[in-house]
């Protein structure tokens, strides 16, 4: 969870709650972006060690963190810290952003985070809540490997402000106004991840692992997929015509990309991933 206040220089003061894998990863990313970052940890060992060495002794241990981050804790930040250091706006129309990255459903009530915030803090605060979700292994983001995540809030404005905080090129944010959908997808995918792990653990192969999730997951995640293999070999620097000649099989995604490109253009919709596959194929064909 991140709490932030924009500064006149465009950078923000950010308080990250949690110094585990993902809290540390987000703190590092925000520190890279020159925000003034405070990372709260409930582990005293993390606070002391981090402020001496810019390393987290428990999570992402190999990573050296930017010097723009200060660890705070183990006591929760108090009112004086909030008021004197972060200086949030108390104007209900201009509340600081509250960004959530947790994925889950409250046991007993079945409530999602947004519902809990609305119930406990009121609808005005819930409007300032933004959710970030998507493929985001902390260990990969912290090494600046590219990923794309969804940033959603009840208002487009809040989502846009939150996305602007994460402006490193490897961390692409797509904004929207469906925080419930984002929350539910993030919570539910974990149940299927357990099922998928079970299928692997039982010794089943890819078809079984993808059952219930579908062909998209299957074809995107296995070197048994011809289309995945084409993409992998392109990523490794091979030429498309060489790949197609040596694949020994069809990869229907290659011609389909052309059709998809036409549909995207006709509908005038944003489809950045399909567009970039198409651009790559056109470049190769020249
Ligand atoms: N790791 C990822 O790649 C990743 C990516 C996206 C989202 N997330 C989400 O971020 C959240 C945290 O994941 P993580 O990977 O950082 O977990 P983690 O286990 O690495 O770290 C969790 C941190 O929270 C602290 N903590 C646990 N219970 C607490 C409590 N009751 N009060 C205060 N602090 C508590 C722990 O001490 C630890 O520092 C999860 O909801 C997860 O779904 C994680
Ligand atoms: O390691 P997991 O299964 O908690 O997944 C972490 C993130 O949610 C991946 O996006």
UniProtKB/TrEMBL annotation:
Entries under InterPro entries matching the protein: 6-PGluconate_DH-like_C_sf, 6PGD_dom2, G3P_DH_NAD-dep, G3P_DH_NAD-dep_C, G3P_DH_NAD-dep_N, NAD(P)-bd_dom_sf
Membrane-spanning intervals of the chain: none
Residue positions binding NAD(+): 18-23, 81, 138, 226
Positions that bind substrate: 103, 226-227
Gene Ontology molecular-function annotations: glycerol-3-phosphate dehydrogenase (NAD+) activity; NAD binding
Catalytic activity: sn-glycerol 3-phosphate + NAD(+) = dihydroxyacetone phosphate + NADH + H(+)
Domain Glycerol-3-phosphate dehydrogenase NAD-dependent N-terminal residue range list: 13-154
Active site: 189 (proton acceptor)
Enzyme class, spelled out: oxidoreductase
Enzyme Commission designation: 1.1.1.8
Swiss-Prot/TrEMBL GO biological process terms: carbohydrate metabolic process; glycerol-3-phosphate catabolic process
Database matches in PROSITE patterns: NAD_G3PDH
SUPFAM superfamilies: 6-phosphogluconate dehydrogenase C-terminal domain-like (SSF48179), NAD(P)-binding Rossmann-fold domains (SSF51735)
Cellular-component GO terms for this entry: cytosol
Annotated ranges, domain Glycerol-3-phosphate dehydrogenase NAD-dependent C-terminal: 178-210, 211-278
Similarity remark: Belongs to the NAD-dependent glycerol-3-phosphate dehydrogenase family.
Name used for this protein in its record: Glycerol-3-phosphate dehydrogenase [NAD(+)]
